[in-house]
Write a structure and sequence with these properties.
13 helices, alpha/beta, single chain, 2 domains, 14 strands, Peroxisomal Thiolase, Chain A, domain 1, 10-stranded mixed sheet, 417 residues
């Protein structure tokens, strides 16, 4: 069976370092940190009092107030990014076959703020069981894909993937497979998360997963640095339009890059900790490269999971060295979470967009906030510390690993007709 080719024809972004794709990419390349004191709630009593929040956003500039009130922020973020991606792809008055167009979205947590608000209102109002009639639709994680499907009239496959921090990457993989199998022509994919809330920060603090560098938020996310102390919570959304190649060519679409492979694996080890020998990370990269029909030496750039945790960072780079061997030291590697924080279920979409734009502009965004070498991390690795590097980027790979041992990797290639 011959597979159809899948290309990227639209991007949209709402991130802690930019509320559109061009601003996001400019700040990513320039090494701008999105971390700052939390403004969404009073975090004074929390061990972590900062995050990478979306900034300067007036929802009513994008979504009418009455409509926005029915959506949790993670859905609002999805709509804003998807609108930009749809426009970027040229789907204004021009529409695809709506029966062959779908939405496959990713989110790890969904409507946490809506759930939190309703429960707190119940607990503080005399235990009177009065809930917002939109509570359930706002909270459930599949509401994002449902809202997008309704918004654009897409009647093809429509669902959410949930695999913690690998959610958006799983969504992209499903979209990729549905298109190359001929079951869709066009798919809005990507991911969104809005977990900078009392419960989100409190919960990750309880896990001891977050950085507590409150005196210097902008330098707190420091992947691969000896003194890293946890990840920085982020929020936002990135939307990616995947399209069957001949369909895109027939309508004269702009093509950013081609998606050529995907890999999946499970650590089968622990609910929050990665496999101590990096077995899942090794297998997912191997599976992705083989699925793409490539050799390890074909990869030019890896956007790592790289969360800035003491345990996770060295295991991922050791898995890279184990699989790629000597080629590990010829590639560029970077963690853009050093700037954006960790978007949880939306991370894979943001980092895939970074790979796609790196291919387009032939520049690798940096891993910022490197101050002290970690003796457990091989100095021969080019981790693109502190400054972007121009280089040939023909093929880029993005890794995402989620609580529960979920591993997903995707591969993008410079488009050649």
């Amino acid at each position: 069976m011959s597979f159809k080719r899948v290309v990227i024809t639209g991007l949209g972004a709402l991130t802690p370092i930019g509320n559109d794709v061009s601003t996001f990419w400019k700040n990513l390349v320039e090494g701008v940190s999105g971390a700052a004191p939390i403004t969404h709630f009073d975090a004074e009593k929390f061990r972590t009092r900062f995050a990478c929040e979306v900034k300067g956003l007036d929802i009513q500039n994008y979504i009418p107030r009455q409509e926005a009130r029915k959506m949790d922020p993670f859905v609002q973020y999805a709509v804003i990014a998807a609108d930009e991606a749809m426009k970027d792809a040229g789907f204004g008055e021009q529409k695809p076959d709506l029966d062959k167009a779908g939405v496959i979205w990713g989110s790890g947590i969904g409507g946490l703020k809506s759930f939190e608000e309703e429960v707190m209102n119940f607990a503080t109002n005399g235990n009177t069981p009065r809930f917002n009639p939109f509570f359930i639709p706002k909270m459930i994680v599949d509401s994002a894909s449902g809202v997008l499907s309704i918004r654009y009239g897409f009647r093809g496959p429509n669902f959410i993937t949930v695999s913690a921090c690998a959610s958006a990457t799983n969504a992209l993989i499903d979209a990729f497979n549905y298109i190359r199998l001929g079951m869709m022509d066009v798919c809005i994919s990507g991911g969104s998360e809005a977990a900078v809330t009392v419960a989100g920060v409190g919960g990750f603090n309880a896990l001891k997963a977050l950085s507590e560098r409150n005196d210097s938020p902008e330098t707190a996310s420091r992947p691969y640095d000896k003194d890293r102390d946890g990840f920085v919570l982020g929020e936002g959304s990135v939307a990616i339009i995947l399209e069957e190649l001949e369909h895109a060519k027939a309508r004269g679409a702009k093509i950013y890059a081609e998606m050529i492979g995907a890999g999946l694996s499970s650590d089968a080890y622990h609910i929050t900790a990665p496999h101590p020998e990096g077995l899942g990370a090794f297998m997912v990269m191997k599976n992705a490269v083989e699925n793409a029909g490539l050799a390890p030496e074909d990869i030019d750039y890896i956007n790592t999971h790289g969360t800035s945790t003491p345990i996770g960072d060295p295991q991922e780079v050791k898995a890279i060295e184990k699989y790629f061997g000597e080629h590990s030291y010829s590639m560029n590697i970077s963690s853009t979470k050093s700037m954006t924080g960790h978007l949880l279920g939306g991370a894979g979409a943001l980092e895939s967009a970074a790979c796609i734009l790196a291919i387009c502009d032939q520049v690798v965004p940096p891993t910022i906030n490197h101050f002290t070498d970690d003796p457990d991390i091989n100095p021969r690795l080019n981790l693109t510390f502190n400054k972007a590097q121009e280089r040939k980027v023909n093929v880029a790979l993005s890794n995402t690993f989620g609580f529960g041992g979920h591993n997903a990797s995707v591969i993008f290639k410079k488009y050649e007709g």
